[in-house]
């Protein structure tokens, strides 16, 4: 697979191929849902190592490569946030808890 995305010949849909080793199920579904307001979106397995996210135009306007690049960037952004939450979420929660704890007077 040369690029992780492709526009169909008629331009009415595009495909984003997300590697399962890089992107979690939760991330793929969250990003798909993010774009479902403007486009029809489907998510299907693509071989053993990928998931295919297909973006369909609702109004007959073309799906452009730029939009597919945005989906890929959203996947990366979402997965980084999820990974950071897993790694540092408990620490962040403790800091927030401490910061907003009632102040004790001496």
Quickly list its features.
elongated, alpha+beta, 4-stranded antiparallel beta sheet, 106 residues, Gyrase A, domain 2
What does this structure look like?
- By secondary structure, the chain is of the alpha+beta class.
- The chain has helices at 25-35, 65-99; strands at residues 5-7, 13-19, 40-46, 50-56.
- The chain contains 2 helices and 4 strands.
- Strands 1-2-4-3 form a 4-stranded antiparallel β-sheet, with helices on one face.
- Helix 1 crosses helix 2 (65-99).
Task: Calculate the terminal CA-CA distance, rounded to whole Å.
Answer: 66 Å
Main sheet specs: 4 strands, antiparallel
Lateral arrangement of strands in the main beta sheet: 1-2-4-3
CATH class: Alpha Beta
User: Low-confidence runs (pLDDT<50, min 5 residues)?
Assistant: none
Order of helices and strands: EEHEEH
Rounded Rg: 19 Å
Any idea what the CATH architecture is? 2-Layer Sandwich
- Beta-strand percentage? 15-25%
Count of β-strands: 4
Q: Mean pLDDT score, rounded?
A: 90
Q: How is the secondary structure organized here?
A:
Layout: E1 5-7, E2 13-19, H1 25-35, E3 40-46, E4 50-56, H2 65-99
Antiparallel strand pairs: 1-2, 2-4, 3-4
Helix pairs in contact: 1-2
